[in-house]
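quick one before i forget lol
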Amino acid sequence: MKKHISIFLTGLVVIIPLGVTIYVIRWITVLLENLGASMIGSFNVRIWPGVGAVAVLAGIYLVGLLTRFWLFRSLLNFFERLIARVPGVKTIYESVRDLMGLFGGDSKRMGRVVEYRPPGGDVTLLGILTNDRPPGIGQNPDHPKVAVYLPYSYMFGGMTIYVDPRHTRAVDMPVEQALKLCAIAQVGGRMEVPRYPTAQVDPRDKT
């Protein structure tokens, strides 16, 4: 019975990630299709299924292409300066922009991967050093602080702590990989099983 349960669970491990991936891709495709169809449909143009999603993807690619031109970047910077003057809207826009930067190949802006070891302990935490001189806290020249983001496992979010830079050590690892390892709690990697010395039992010792 235990063997059949193990086989069933193995099947779940294969099917659930595949099913969730297909569902998310389908959801995004339908969302893009409806968005593109509504935009093109406003011009009273009849389109074939799938054209709306292609139109949206082409539009996103065109915007990315325009960012390579100085004039478009200047207009974008002007737009961001206007948003920065609106309380609340600025926080939402900048938070989403920085988060999307991870998917746009601009993860270096988020920071660099470090190991943080709290003083007086043997625990090592994997985090992202996001700011060498974080604003909003009193900086002592003799005891400076850096901002380190510690992501949670199996959930979206984390906490930002301010620590002594002497307790951090740089890790040669991309930010994307560190976030992935933290998200899955290092599950799936190769684990070395420690080998303990076998106790020598005296045959004359009866228990």
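fyi The mean pLDDT is 79.
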